[in-house]
Amino acid sequence: MNAIKHYLQFKDFTRDEYAYLFERTRWIKEKFKRYEPHHPLFDRTLVMIFEKASTRTRLSFEAGMHQLGGSAIYLNTRDSQLGRGEPVEDAAQVISRMSDAVMIRTFEQSVIERFAENSRVPIINGLTNEYHPCQIMADIYTFIEHRGDIQGKTVAWIGDSNNMCNTWLQAAELLDFNVHVSTPPGYEIEPERAGLYGTNHFEQFADPMDACKGADLVTTDVWTSMGFEAENEERMKAFADWCVDEDMMQVAAADAVFMHCLPAHRGEEVTAGVIDGPQSVVWDEAENRLHAQKALLEYLVVGRVDS
Ligand code: CP
Ligand code: NVA
Fold first, then answer.
1. Looking at the whole model, is its pTM more than 0.85?
2. Which candidate, 291, 9, 306, 37, places its Cα nearest to that of 168?
């Protein structure tokens, strides 16, 4: 085992590290908005491995590395030996000798764990079936930007107990806020799969309206995540009442914001009125992937820096 810092799930960082990263994200974003160059990763290379589709994750990591003075290389399973059965352990040995960090989007969490165990450089989870930590880091930063500290606040999670939901639950334990979860019967959260410590930071509600009551942030995600397409028809029926609509936003806190990691399906998990409405911050949320991941890349590759 080596002492390299990886970002495989949300709880890989401490509360103090998140405080640093959120502050650094703000600094990096401001610099970007002023068109001031910031090149701490000059001559460094990020390899991005995608076993599932992506728009935001690829774009934000690729543009982010470029803006930090480095470069990014895109690999997918189709065009590389990864799709032809080369062992993950061997791929990790080789790829990590030619790069400074590796971002992976794949299916099982165990794949990135095996990759990390054989890597000489930091590994970043760009989404697995279990977790999506980069997204939640950007989401929490977005909340802070709009509403201040998330500690003690309530997040309503409506819909599937998927990678996003699991990561919100981990984040709640670490950063001390609450999650009100409402999933259809048969799709309930699995605390062990979510990697929870067992502290009391979530509550489950049969009725999504009850989960939204008084919430400071209402959020949802697709009914069928990547890799679960065979269940789509069944899920469309099961999730029909778990569409975030204007009535749900009405019972949330008066200044509640709405988030969605995107891509969204208007008319399924959220109405057009909500996602395109005044409480929605989804475009800031998407943009903040860029800024938060630049802070993450800088931290993993060169460590803490004083501005
Ligand atoms: N939210 C998110 O990760 O989007 P992509 O699938 O487009 O990367
Ligand atoms: N839960 C979704 C998130 C997409 C960014 C999925 O895994 O497909």
1. yes
2. 9
